[in-house]
Amino acid sequence: MPVKRPRLRKKRYALAAVLGLLAGFAYLNNTSLLAAPSDQRPRVLAHRGLAQTFSTEGVENDTCTAERIAPPPHGYLENTIPSMRAAFDAGADLVELDVHITRDGQFAVFHDWEVDCRTEATGTTRDFTMAELRGLDVGYGYTADGGRTFPFRGKGEGLMPSLDEVLAEFPHEPLLIHVKSDDPAEGEALARRLSALDPPRLAEIAVYGGDAPVRVVRERLPRVRTMSKAIMKDCLLSYEAVGWTGAAPGACANTELHVPEGYAPWLWGWPSKFTERMESVGSRVVLVAGSGGFSEGFDTPESLRRVPEEFTGYVWTNRAEVVAPLIRR
């Protein structure tokens, strides 16, 4: 029977020792068990201000969600200035809003590509001027009982704001702007509008949406945090390759990271060390519920129990009036 050579045996022992040391280093460098306790609470991202909620079961891209709302828990309509103000007053740290370019080159703050679902008109936002959109009733199509009653009809006239109006109303509050199209020209127009803001204000603005327009915003305004599918992919794949060392790759710098809770535990150093590393390169971490599809949020006291105690980033919610007081408490 052949006898193993001592030199080969020593090499194998050395390799095993090196691999063991690397594994130990990776564990100690990324476990949250050894992190110092933090008294910092998670922060709250209010999706579209205070909005009427709906079941996400069976929702598709063309579903009219206004036709399936739950019984209204409050009198606010999403993406309006009163709803944003109410969200900040409830304790939200950041408000998300949706924008579409109009026929006269302004940005309307409105969720849908088409106006048919929520208003009395038909067509896309690009078909209208901002003045025409402002004249629509954005509460027209909401119903919680299959169309028997419309609790907000007649109450949403004049409530669709422009982005200019939102920026004027909230000159200091953090805002997350969602570009709903994948048109690079829209990114160019948004970059021109935001470039008029001074640097301290720009530091409180983030932009996410389609790859093409967001890429333009990132190129024109590198100080603005941005996120798209392409940016998220570049960042997280790079991080999975080197994050075990404690490094935050350049691809993650100055980004808006929306991390689904199902994927989050696979990130090196999740939650506390991952969040610290991203913040060290100017990025913001937002935890979204479930798979992150169709704006799932942490909207109930029960769902908040799934947020790790060590997490100090932002929690995405559709019910800021419920969640923000609980987190602050």
TrEMBL record:
SUPFAM superfamilies: PLC-like phosphodiesterases. Pfam families: GDPD (PF03009). Residues 42-327 form the GP-PDE domain. GO terms for molecular function: phosphoric diester hydrolase activity. GO terms for biological process: lipid metabolic process. This is Glycerophosphoryl diester phosphodiesterase family.
